[in-house]
Design a protein that fits this description.
The complex is a heterodimer of chains A (about 180) and B (about 240). Chain A contains seven helices and seven strands. By secondary structure, chain A is α/β, with parallel strands linked by helices. Chain A has one domain: NADH:ubiquinone oxidoreductase-like, 20kDa subunit (Rossmann fold). In chain A, the strands form two sheets. A five-stranded parallel beta sheet of chain A has the order 2-1-3-5-7, with helices on both faces. A two-stranded antiparallel sheet of chain A has the order 4-6. Chain B has about 240 residues and is α+β, with helices and mostly antiparallel strands. Chain B folds into two domains: about 70 residues, Ubiquitin-like (UB roll); about 130 residues, Alpha-Beta Plaits (2-Layer Sandwich). In chain B, a hairpin with a 2-residue loop joins β3 and β4. At the A-B interface, α4 and β7 of A face α3 of B.
């Protein structure tokens, strides 16, 4: 691959996810060394930068379960030329969305109040805490998403394929071996 | 004229009474489909198998070919429409592949891989559909039902039992079982029934088998569905 003159800026974040997709991203192993010749990281758990500046590529893991998730997602969409949803949770809500058939008050009551063994339980109400959403939403229901990498998590090879396709200016394509929803 | 038609330019022979998809499968060709199963009478409901026959769209599982008919199937236009049908099926139910025992053996999932469905595109319905785990050997996870009616046809036409039926209309259509209680345990359903083994998705699930074959080594992990149009699904 030809090395671009200017490094592309990449930001990543996990919303309502388990960081599994980020772990899978690290599974590209020594190809990380090749990648950092081509890109530099802005906001990401890898850099600990807290806010996203103007970027070429934003990668979002996880769906939206609270107000803070929505703010982070909107910051990414505002700053990233290309936004990628990575993993089942970002794409269809995934495991956190398994709460969606229950009402939020019922869940909070069950977890913080009614469950056996809780003494003087109360629903946390510190103003610092982001408010939970009524349901867990996939990210494309709130902002426009340019590309999707399905999988729980997608393999390191799948992530590498999409990133290298994009960096080379090709339309990303996974093919049968890398395409998985599980 | 002889009894052949062309499918995407290839000559396909057919015999009297065969439908387009039956002749195509006999000739080793793949047309995407979900509610069609060669062992059962066509239902023509999922519309995944829609082709253009002499320029007109039609379900290839119900349409009989004519001599010299020009049939198009693997075109961008048709595959784009099929992908939208799949996306609507995915958002209408709760299809969480990572936690589904059928993942890797599921025809809905495999067809979505085949047609490169990268996202559900539409807003999720997140319907509330309780699981029926009353039967000792089998459970029914209605979250995954695509209303193909294969279990209905198998139970009625092969088992002679009428355990399953589709009830309601439009968006309220849903699968029911033949018991006053509404529970599978109160029907005469048995694991030996044909109906227990025809679900193309993960609704009718044998208990305590789950992940005997690990994810990654299942039927459609190994081969795309187009290379195995009527596979014997592992562990089904």
């Amino acid at each position: 691959m030809d090395v671009p003159v200017k490094k592309l800026k990449v930001a990543t974040a996990t919303l309502a996810g388990c960081f599994g997709c980020h772990m899978s991203f690290l599974d590209i192993d020594e190809r990380l060394l090749e990648l950092i010749k081509l890109v530099e990281f802005d906001r990401s758990p890898l850099t600990d930068i807290k806010h996203c500046g103007p970027c070429d590529i934003g990668i979002i893991e996880g769906g939206l379960c609270n107000a803070e998730n929505v703010h982070v997602l909107q910051e990414f969409r505002l700053n990233c030329k290309t936004l990628i949803a990575i993993g089942a949770c970002a794409i269809n809500g995934g495991l956190p969305a398994q709460r969606n058939h229950l009402s939020l008050p019922l869940i909070l009551e069950e977890v913080y109040h009614a469950q056996h063994g809780l003494i003087d339980g109360f629903i946390p109400n510190d103003p610092e805490l982001p408010l939970p959403l009524d349901k867990v939403y996939p990210i494309h229901e709130v902002v426009k998403v340019d590309y999707f990498i399905p999988g729980c998590p997608p393999s390191g090879d799948a992530i590498w394929k999409v990133l290298t396709d994009l960096l080379a200016g090709r339309e990303p394509e996974l093919g049968h071996n890398l395409m998985h929803y599980d | 004229m002889d009894n052949t038609f062309t499918l995407d330019g290839k000559s396909i022979p057919y015999s009297e009474g065969q439908t387009i998809i039956q002749a195509a499968i006999a000739a080793g060709e793949y047309i995407p489909h979900l509610c069609f199963n060669p062992e059962f009478k066509p239902h023509g409901s999922c519309k995944l198998c829609t082709v253009k026959a002499n320029g007109r769209q039609t379900a290839s599982c119900t349409q009989q070919p004519q001599p010299g008919m020009v049939v198009e199937s693997d075109t961008k236009e048709l595959n784009d429409e099929r992908r939208v049908l799949l996306q609507m099926l995915f958002v209408e139910g709760n299809h969480f592949c990572p936690s589904c025992e059928k993942s890797g053996n599921c025809q809905l999932q495999a067809t979505a891989y085949e047609l490169e469905m990268m996202s559900p595109h539409f807003d999720q319905f997140f319907p509330d559909r309780p699981v029926d785990a009353t039967h000792s050997e089998y459970l029914l996870d209605f979250n995954r039902c695509i209303l193909c009616s294969l279990c209905v046809r198998a139970s009625r036409d092969v088992d002679g039992k009428n355990v399953f039926a589709l009830s309601g209309r439009g968006i309220k259509s849903h699968l029911i079982v033949n018991a006053k209680s509404g529970n599978l345990v109160d029907t005469d359903f048995s694991g030996d029934d044909k109906a227990a083994h025809v679900c193309p998705v993960g609704v009718i699930i044998k208990k305590r088998v789950g992940f005997a074959i690990p994810i990654g080594r299942r039927t459609f992990d190994e081969h795309p569905i187009s290379a195995t149009p009527h596979p014997i699904v592992k562990g089904a």
